[in-house]
Design a protein that fits this description.
alpha/beta; 144 residues
Length: 144
């Protein structure tokens, strides 16, 4: 089993089940300490290369994922890998798209969809999930 994130680490979101997932803005330097073992990059164009396993979801800034089924699949994979791996979710700034994806992970972890944005804002970043359509996406994510 891989050493997991430090729950007090920069950008680390503890989910109710105990899973730890790190959110990050790719325009900022990689935080000190352990690197991810798996990352989900939420960008409008291809992400920069990384030394760890990663998935790219085409997700333009301030928008929603281009392929919602692919997003659901990749986010489920991230959630299922989090108990034993250092999973990171990242977009350019680390708030809107990252916050939206983290809120979807919270829904997968059992947080009621209507409460997931508030959960992420309280436990990750107060300005996470930036647009009304991102908030609606989280609520609708529960329904599949």
């Amino acid at each position: 089993m891989t050493e997991l994130w430090d729950a007090a680490g920069e950008g680390v979101l503890p989910l109710p089940s105990g899973r730890l997932v790190r959110g990050r803005g790719l325009r900022r330097p990689l935080p000190e300490g352990a690197e991810p073992t798996f990352a989900v990059h939420l960008l409008g164009g291809p992400p920069p290369p990384v030394a760890w396993e990663s998935r790219w979801l085409r997700w333009p800034d301030f928008r929603l994922p281009a392929d919602r089924e692919a997003a659901r699949s990749v986010l489920r994979e991230a959630w299922s890998r989090a108990p034993g791996e250092r999973v990171e979710v990242a977009c350019g700034g680390g708030r809107g798209r990252t916050g939206t994806a983290l809120a979807c992970l919270a829904v997968l972890d059992g947080v009621p969809a209507e409460e997931a944005v508030a959960y992420v804002r309280r436990n990750y970043h107060p300005k996470a999930v930036e647009t009304p359509w991102q908030r609606r996406y989280v609520v609708r994510f529960a329904g599949g």
